Amino acid sequence: xxxxxxxxxSCLACALTAGTVPLPGGQVLRDDRWVVEHCVxxxxxxxxxxxxxxxxxxxxxxxxxEAAELGPLLRRVSAAVTEATAPExxxxxxxxxxxxxxGHIHFVVQPVDxxxxxxxxxxxxxx
Length: 127
Ligand SMILES: [Zn+2]
Description:
By secondary structure, the chain is α+β, with helices and mostly antiparallel strands. The protein has a single domain (about 5-125), classed as HIT family, subunit A, CATH 3.30.428. The chain is about 35% helix and about 30% strand. It is built from 4 helices and 5 strands, in the order ααβββαββα. It has a 5-stranded antiparallel sheet. A hairpin with a 3-residue loop joins β1 (about 25-30) and β2 (about 35-40). The radius of gyration is 15 Å and the shape is globular. Bound molecules: zinc ion (ZN). Zinc ion binds near residues 13, 14, 55 and 104.
């Protein structure tokens, strides 16, 4: 078994997709290369994760096809979040460190409204 396979076996992102770790809300979209899931953790209701099905650690490692699909998929998920929650802004950012080392890349699509900013007295990265 290769190092990548070993890393994938201990990867939370892969485990959530495989269903070996509970995923509240489940998957909302999945094709041969990408999956969109409800976000686990404290980022709030309506936050989604967009990630490649493959255990990819760097954006530069995406295939040409994955890269071509990424922008339209992020736009589509952001549009759905906007339609459902009418936020002031939708943050889209890449998270990819786990235990201080590069992890399975995943783009967090997070709606943000005035109430949330006021509640935490924050916006941007602090939020
Ligand atoms: Zn993974």
